[in-house]
Amino acid sequence: MAGAAQRDCSGVKRVGVLRDLTIAAGTGQFAAVQSAAPSVGIELTPIGLRDAAEIERGVAALVRGGNGGLIATAGPSTAVHRELIIALAARHRLPAVYFDCFFVADGGLISYGPDLVEQHRQAAAYVDRILRGEKPADLPVQAPTKYELVINLKTARAIGIEIPAMLIARADEIIE
User: Fold this and answer.
1) Cα gap 57→52, rounded to integer Å
2) Domain 11-175: CATH class, spelled out
């Protein structure tokens, strides 16, 4: 949509949260988003990921209400339906945030999530420690320590979103 009027995302009042109910993390991620939503005045709508029809119905219902956006939580079903989710966000001009940069590389708007390369380095260090004789049960659980923000400016322009300069300055990667 070249030449579309630019808008910012401050008008977003309703957010569809794509979540996978078949995994425990899907429920936990939704709960985390749900706890933060009131502080920013956002109404959440859960959208299941069982199949393409459920996703399409959920996004269509969100769009009918206006002022919407999407959050795609991490999970295998989100990855399986990646192309559909990105296409629906583009078709309906919805700002969408994803958990991994491969969504943004495929045309999604923004991702914020753990740096997978860093997580693999952490895992390799654990393997090394185990191979040197440490018991896995004695090793502490580690959470990600490095996160990355990736923004697709081409997608932002296509859906008419103005990305604030401060956010662009903080991005780890910008896709033009």
Assistant:
1) 9
2) alpha beta
